[in-house]
Specification:
This protein is an alpha/beta fold. Strands 1, 4, 5, 6, 7 and 13 form a 6-stranded mixed beta sheet that branches. The radius of gyration is 24 Å and the shape is globular. It is an enzyme of class 4 (lyase).
Length: 456
């Protein structure tokens, strides 16, 4: 599969654009700096790596990623600029911190006993499990003891290598290859391609990547849960104290919650059959309609991948899709909606796709300009599914409950209450299956993310 390789290649090419003070070469002063030095210089130097769970450039060429957004928020709290220094491997990052190339490392690094002896860590950011991952139908390892019977490869100087070394004392049959030139994601790709039996990866990395590589299967967790944190040199006590203070503050906690919401909240429990079907249909069905989605998106404030994802949620890209409820076509339009949009044949994608985009745009325009993106688009999608009237009720209820009617995160909590008589009996438009639009938006976000990585 070319999805992740294309994505990674594009990102590496874009690194040369220099957004947000990126410095792939890591040039410049290499002395370990105090917090006062950092503030005086007006710049925080951070080592990271290019991956979906850490840092990348998005489809608009803008810096993004969980670690990037979090460390950018911290730099903003210090009143300094962020200079991100991209390294190829975890080993390069660890060496870079030791040599003073960066003030800290924000790269999805696990706290291990070996690393604690050489570095200092911030407060915990998240907890993950290291997971043994193999390919469905391939040569797999169902237990630690069985790891000696498969080809196993992990990045050199990774936490996985340390975990395997610890297990080897009680399971001497375990063998593996430590690769000094690669990261976790390329090894997952290698397993998916059948060129390697198994590897080890953090659970958050697995959750994101197996949506593009659906034949990957988690065999078991390797040991107990572990913490991710930022890593600094041992003598960076002042910086560590400032990082910990910020992470414990309301602003820091809000930043962590915001990052988790943006990058992980839409990822559903893995569905092998459903995900494999989507990946196959991206190759076989989407090309027939891609130009129609692109043409429709050009007239409205949406990306063509969003329209494609919505259409997949509606019909799985089946032009002649029909429902017992009376909706029809690739965008599942009602007869009344289609008529109002000038559609004479709902089963004709050339009519249905632009009409669906126009209707979504209409819903989008009926929400306040004060609602930030992407929340406003999520509200529009929910209205497409549930109706603007019920969304109005949900916003009214949100205000009564002290929630923010302009926040999709808050609206996700309020919408399910539309099916609870204690709440809907006092609302203008009454009962509604409020959980449906929540799931609807969640699935579209998930589909769009997969489509973007697979197509672009």
């Amino acid at each position: 599969m070319k999805a992740y390789l294309n994505f990674a290649t594009a990102v590496l090419i874009l690194l040369g654009l220099g957004a947000c003070g990126q410095d792939p070469a890591g040039s410049g002063d290499t002395s370990v700096r105090s917090l006062a030095d950092i503030k005086a210089a007006g710049e925080l130097r951070v080592l990271s790596r290019n991956a979906p769970t850490t840092y990348f450039l998005d489809k608009n060429g803008q810096p993004a990623g969980p670690e990037y957004e979090l460390v950018k928020a911290f730099a903003d709290s210090l009143g300094v600029e962020l200079r991100l220094i991209v390294q190829d491997t975890v080993g390069d990052i660890l060496s870079g911190v030791s040599q003073g190339k960066g003030d800290l490392a924000a790269a999805g690094l696990t706290q291990t006993e070996g690393r604690k002896a050489a570095f200092t860590f911030s407060r915990r950011i998240e907890t993950i499990n290291e997971q043994v991952v193999c390919r469905r139908g391939g040569n797999v390892a169902k237990s630690v003891a069985a790891l000696g019977k498969v080809s196993l490869e992990v990045p050199q100087k990774s936490s996985y290598e340390e975990s395997l070394t610890a297990l080897q004392s009680t399971h001497p049959e375990i063998t593996w290859k430590s690769n000094p030139n690669t990261g976790t994601e390329p090894l997952l790709q290698k397993v998916w391609e059948g060129k390697l039996d198994c590897t080890v990866a953090d659970s958050n990395i697995v959750a994101i990547n197996r949506r593009f590589l659906p034949e990957l299967i988690v065999m078991f967790d390797l040991g107990s849960p572990k913490d991710h944190a930022w890593l600094m040199a041992k003598d960076q006590s002042e910086l560590k104290a400032e990082v910990d203070r910020w992470m414990a503050s309301d602003a820091g906690k809000a930043a962590v919650d915001r990052v988790h919401y943006r990058y992980y909240s839409f990822i559903e429990d893995f569905d092998f059959v459903g995900t494999r079907a989507l990946v196959e249909r991206i190759d076989k069905r989407l090309p027939k309609y891609k130009s129609l989605f692109e043409k429709a998106a050009a007239k409205h404030p949406f990306d063509h991948t969003l329209l494609a994802a919505q259409a997949y949620q509606e019909s799985h890209w089946e032009a002649d899709a029909k429902s017992p409820s009376g909706v029809r076509g690739i965008m599942m339009l009602t007869q009344n909606t289609a008529k109002s949009l000038g559609v004479t044949n709902r089963l004709d994608p050339r009519q249905a796709i632009p009409a669906g985009a126009e209707y979504l745009s209409k819903m989008h325009s009926r929400f306040s300009d004060e609602i930030p993106e992407p929340d406003r688009t999520y509200m529009a999608l929910a209205a497409y599914n549930l109706g603007r009237a019920h969304m109005h009720d949900a916003q009214t209820l949100a205000r009564k409950l002290g929630k923010d009617p302009h926040s999709w995160e808050d609206m996700q909590e309020v919408l399910p209450l539309l099916s609870d008589k204690r709440y809907y009996k006092d609302l203008r438009y009454g009962y509604a299956r409020g959980m449906e639009p929540v799931r609807y938006v969640q699935r579209i976000r998930n589909y769009e993310d997969i489509i973007e990585k697979k197509v672009d």
